[in-house]
Amino acid sequence: MRMSVTIRQIAVKAGVSRGTVDRVLNDRPGVKPHVREKVMAIAEELNYVPNAAAKALAFSKKPLHVGIIMPPREIEFFQEIRDGIEEAADELKGFGIQLEYCYVSNQNPEEGAAVIRKLVEDGVNGIMFSVMDDDLIRLSINQAVDSGVPVITFNSDVEQSKRICFVGQNLPQSGRIAAGLMARVLRSPSKVLVVAGHLSIYAHRARVKGFGDHLSGSGIDIVQVIEGYDRFEDTYEKLKEALTRYPEIEGIYMATGHIGACMDVVKGMNRPNRYRIIANDLMPEVEQGMREGLIDFTIVQNPAQQGYRSIRMLYELILNGKMPEQQYYYTETSIVIPESL
Amino acid sequence: MRMSVTIRQIAVKAGVSRGTVDRVLNDRPGVKPHVREKVMAIAEELNYVPNAAAKALAFSKKPLHVGIIMPPREIEFFQEIRDGIEEAADELKGFGIQLEYCYVSNQNPEEGAAVIRKLVEDGVNGIMFSVMDDDLIRLSINQAVDSGVPVITFNSDVEQSKRICFVGQNLPQSGRIAAGLMARVLRSPSKVLVVAGHLSIYAHRARVKGFGDHLSGSGIDIVQVIEGYDRFEDTYEKLKEALTRYPEIEGIYMATGHIGACMDVVKGMNRPNRYRIIANDLMPEVEQGMREGLIDFTIVQNPAQQGYRSIRMLYELILNGKMPEQQYYYTETSIVIPESL
DNA sequence: CTGTTAGCGCATTCAG
DNA sequence: CTGAATGCGCTAACAG
């Protein structure tokens, strides 16, 4: 097949120099409107597509700098996201990409906002953000984007902001999948319990809602939704009380919340028929629970893929100015059982 | 951070020219042994990493040509693999990669062998292969590899050949996962049936074996393994007969084989309690069966990922001479339920 | 055997 | 406003 069309070819065809073509293609000033149009037209006609290698090479004196803002590294879940980021970065390393991780507490919006501003001042070419959703944060993100630094959110979105796009899980679907599984392992008239962290947080609520909606009319009833505030004590007490009060409960959906506490309660219940338990993600406690035969299914959101895709999209955007086509990119939601481990 | 080390830097440090360094780094002949060693040492010391962009750019006059040999495009499953291949190719397109698809019947080894030879003669830089396993094929693959054209098998391996590596599914694991699911949806003493295509084919046998092994001692018995030879008639008759003879059967594992026939039989059985059915892959018949509520689970092997990874590994190998670390690359095996669709 | 040189396609000066 | 020239890191062809 033919070599693909180069900037030079369109230059000769347009009767201008390569420099001019470059200016047009990259939306830089200093080209007379009619020349610009002509060049554009020819580029379209020839179906010009820039050579990524050449571009990267030319860029390589000034390496691409991207800032990554996420919760403290102790959080296991984010470690997996990092793995995905690193994988993508490895593939792009030859092209001079430079990552700067900034760990920020999930509790303090001011800190997050400050870090964004600092990165922008330092001249990063793009930002990946995954901390909390807050007005202060929203403001900083908007300022960054306005000043030309693209921001992509991942795993947890900052809604109503000017962030370019969000890469994460389809939460209601993960709730529906949990419901589908529950309906398959339990026989029809039966009762289940739901455990969540904070129902005031969108991510937590969305799963519970997806679960409930899908189950309604199926003959499987949700007797209670427990809110444990991600604390051991609250979760433990409330769950224990509920299970004691409703001995007919056969299944538990742990949408979010303190898994350790749930496991402890379940172990202590000492029932003839074990509970059917469905969890989310693959934190160590969940994996442990699966190996012990306590947890039947866990629904995972492919954290590595979230990291991988975020970086790649940002890279594409920065280097080629290619805007993502969608606002929301959902990573695959999949089901894990002990045999999958 | 510092710019990464270039060929020129190691050249000055070694007191030789860039050409020589290039020769050493790429294992090309024409360098005195002691010079070669010195250069190698310095490269190690400086922790030299080639610049992928520059490499790709320099190569771009002579585009990378890879041949892809797979079954006819009508087969839905392979279409998904193609999607993965195309995705990777898109990412590498800027780097001048050129795909040539060759569709070959799964029945005729001679054709496959001939295509391999033809591709090698045409001077492809690498081959991806996924048709049948046969001595003739093995021979052609070995010849290709010996003459310097790397071959990677995907989805279905050619064992005992010199192919660089295999990218595909962990078949026994997929059988075990099916068993795990079956054990969770059925209560303990119960009976199930297995449907397969050809038990003489490794891929088919491996799943059945994984399923059986994992179920042994669980209280769930396999009353029969049906071999349908991927034909409607055989599958239909045998399955119907078995289900009629053993009305106590509660679950069916469709490891491989003619899904359409299975669906027809099941629909015709008219039972009060529906069967619990587990299938593999996401062919249209399976998707249909799931939507109709006949199939509970299907175990998928991420065909797109198989294509994606194969291409990337081949690219790495050709461009950077980086041999894969393993012989077998298993793609993620995941579980799909109707709610995941 | 080894050094030199001319591109690969693009971004980015610096002159006009 | 536009053209020409230079270099990114590497390969390959050509001189020595």
Quick structural overview:
Two copies of one chain form a homodimer. With 341 residues, chain A is of the alpha/beta class. Chain A has helices spanning 7-14, 18-25, 33-46, 52-59, 76-93, 109-122, 135-146, 171-185, 202-215, 232-245, 259-269, 284-291, 303-320; strands spanning 64-70, 97-103, 126-129, 151-154, 165-168, 190-196, 220-227, 249-254, 276-280, 297-300, 328-330, 334-336.
Largest interface: which pair?
Answer: A-B, 42 and 42 residues
Q: Unreliable segments of chain A (pLDDT under 50, ≥5 consecutive)?
A: none
Series of secondary-structure elements of chain A, N-terminal to C-terminal: HHHHEHEHEHEEHEHEHEHEHEHEE
| Order of adjacent strands in the largest pleated sheet of chain A | 2-1-3-4-5-11
What average pLDDT do the residues of chain A reach? 91
Q: What is the helix tally of chain A? A: 13
Reported for the largest beta sheet of chain A, the result is: 6 strands, parallel
- The dominant shape of chain A is elongated
Which structural class matches the secondary elements of chain A?
alpha/beta
